[in-house]
Design brief:
Elements: H1 3-8, E1 27-29, H2 38-41, E2 62-64, E3 71-72, E4 75-77, E5 88-91, E6 110-113, H3 116-120, E7 124-126, E8 133-134
Antiparallel strand pairs: 1-2, 3-8, 4-7, 5-6
Length: 139
């Protein structure tokens, strides 16, 4: 199994949360119209090396993903180009309607700092908030 396959593969007793996303409430601030969030989330798109999620303004994106039921988040698969991939990923639980004007008012539930090597091997980021439940408000 390649590194990319291992990053998207789920372990026994874990499931891909794609089927539990409330797509009507998904938001991504600063996303490029030609490189949108669906490129990163939807099956068939996220595996395509030519598709990616990109900001249309600066290096920041603010993503809100609500779920249709209570979930436990174990890990997040992240991959990107070594030069332009994400450097820091912050997770906030149950914070609806966050914007760039108020995001710094909240402490993240978890933060991952990624290196170029992490992005090269399609890192599966295990989050330290595994035991916390994300209610259907989203992350």
């Amino acid at each position: 199994m390649s590194a990319a396959e291992s990053a998207t593969a789920t372990q026994r007793s874990q499931v891909d949360l794609l089927d539990f996303i409330d797509w009507s409430g998904v938001e991504c601030l600063n996303q490029s119209s030609s490189h949108s969030l669906s490129n990163a989330l939807k099956q068939g798109y996220r595996e395509d090396e030519g598709l990616n999620l990109e900001s249309d303004a600066d290096e920041q994106l603010l993503i809100y993903i609500p779920f249709t039921q209570v979930i436990k988040l174990h890990s997040i698969g992240i991959k990107g180009s070594e030069e332009e991939g994400p450097k820091t990923v912050k997770l906030f639980t149950n914070k609806e309607h966050m914007g760039f004007s108020n995001v710094n008012d909240f402490l993240p539930s978890d933060t991952a700092v990624l290196s170029q090597d992490n992005l090269k091997v399609a890192l599966l980021v295990c989050v330290s908030i595994v035991r916390k439940l994300f209610c259907n408000k989203g992350i």
